[in-house]
Write a structure and sequence with these properties.
The chain is an alpha/beta fold. It is 39% helix and 23% strand. The protein contains 15 helices and 16 strands. GO terms for molecular function: 5'-methylthioadenosine deaminase activity; metal ion binding; S-adenosylhomocysteine deaminase activity. Its cofactor is Zn(2+).
């Protein structure tokens, strides 16, 4: 058994007033035993290792509730286009040329970037998800994985079968670090019959559903023309809601849509930077939260963002709402909740997202001994409005250190970068 004592400033995310300027965290194996002021460790706790970080803020690891990790292969390949031309003329043709090995290396690059920027858990949707699972297991992070399903595509049935196999082969793998969902892409790429089959199979296997919903005005128009309803209303009519559903984007929602989502307990993955870059719009996040909808934060893929920096995502989420709704909209601590506590709830993870006894030891430390963190009037405000990826010093997942003094412990990142560069350029030259 391994026992670790961390001494640092501690922001446990257990409440707005909870902060320990001189705190400590006790960890045994993969779980937190205690959190409190310095000196509060029980006398019976004899650590095998002490980590002193007096100028760092230790907080829960960040949770990315919507991404396509292997799209690091397409970073900056197709910029400055609207969503549908971007997908149809650039992204999908490139992805058609990607092999299983390309997806493995692209995912490993994404995980290296996530660890270095303080993200410990992701909800991913892509193809070749066995390769994504392999990368997650190697990197040591936590991942909720869904096979992207375009039901209207020629490979729709094969992808559906692959998602079933993904559940059977990887749900609970890595001592629970991997969970699996079904990943129907969107209402406009899947028929009603296909979506109902997804729902039936997800319920049978006891897993959730991860789907893009109401991302663009074009989607709203398409679904309205086909079914006479909004995407949310149509999905409700199909019976897709009712279990654990994570709806990504949710930019264009009527009040009726919002009420349906609240009543059906649909979780939302908010992706402000992707929504801005693709000119999709501004999601009604304060309104959803006021109705009791749980909202997490996501980056989307690196072709529509173009990074996986959740600190940047927090800042953008806050500023976008303040621009549209007023300066008091979405204060800093609420944004931190979306990136941690509510991110865990969105993914259906019940023992991560806060630093408290019994929870998994998924945590990060941010180096506050830098000019941009002085004076320290508000730790939450600094984390949301000031901090960036490069400030993360330490990352731990499941009680295992994945990064120490900004050095990755589980990934040879230079090798990964070289491999992705070679593979991505080779695909692009062939198009």
């Amino acid at each position: 058994m391994s026992k670790i004592l961390i001494r640092a400033m501690v922001l446990p995310m257990t409440g707005p007033e909870d902060f320990y300027p001189e705190g400590e965290i006790g960890i045994e194996n993969n779980r937190i035993l205690f959190v409190g002021e310095k000196g509060s460790a029980p006398g019976s706790f004899i650590p095998d290792q002490i980590i002193d970080l007096p100028e760092d803020v230790v907080m829960p690891g960040l949770i990315n509730t919507h991404t396509h990790a292997a799209m690091t292969m397409l970073r900056s390949y197709a910029d400055d286009l609207p969503l549908m031309p971007w997908l149809q003329t650039k992204i999908w043709p490139f992805e058609d040329k990607m092999s299983d090995e390309d997806i493995y290396w692209g995912t490993l690059l994404a995980l290296g970037e996530m660890i270095q920027s303080g993200t410990t858990t992701m909800l991913d949707m892509y193809a070749s998800m066995d390769q994504v699972a392999k990368a997650v297991l190697e990197a040591g992070t936590r991942g909720v994985l869904s096979r992207g399903l375009i039901g209207n595509a020629p490979n729709g049935e094969r992808a559906f079968a692959e998602n079933i196999d993904l559940v059977k082969n990887y749900h609970g793998a890595g001592q629970g670090r991997i969970q699996v969902m079904f990943g129907p892409h969107a209402p406009y790429t899947c028929s009603g019959e296909f979506l109902q089959r997804v729902k039936q199979e997800a319920d049978r296997l006891g897993v959730g559903i991860h789907i893009h919903v109401a991302e663009t005005e074009d989607e709203i128009k398409t679904i309205k023309e086909q079914y006479g309803k909004t995407p949310v209303q149509w999905l409700e009519e199909l019976g897709l809601f009712g279990g654990h559903v994570v709806a990504a984007h949710c930019v264009h929602l009527t009040e009726e849509d919002q009420e349906i989502m609240a009543q059906s307990k649909v979780f939302v993955a908010h992706n402000p930077e992707s929504n801005m870059k693709l000119n999709s719009g501004t999601a009604p996040i304060p309104e959803l939260r006021s109705r009791g909808v749980v909202v997490g934060l996501g980056t989307d893929g690196t072709s529509s963002n173009n990074n996986l920096d959740m600190f940047g995502e927090m800042r953008s989420a806050a500023f976008q709402q303040k621009l549209v709704k007023g300066a008091t909209a979405l204060p800093a601590y609420e944004v931190l909740q979306m990136a941690t506590v509510d991110g865990a709830r969105t993914l259906g993870l019940h023992d991560v997202g806060v630093l408290a006894p019994g929870y998994k030891a998924d945590l990060i430390s941010i180096n506050f001994d830098q000019p941009h963190f002085y004076p320290r009037f508000s730790i939450p405000a600094h984390l949301v409005y000031v901090a960036h990826a490069g400030d993360v010093r330490t990352v731990m997942v499941d009680g295992k250190i994945l990064m120490q003094e900004r050095q990755l412990m589980t990934i040879d990142i230079k090798r990964v970068c070289r491999e992705v560069e070679r593979r991505a350029k080779g695909i692009a030259q062939g198009l």
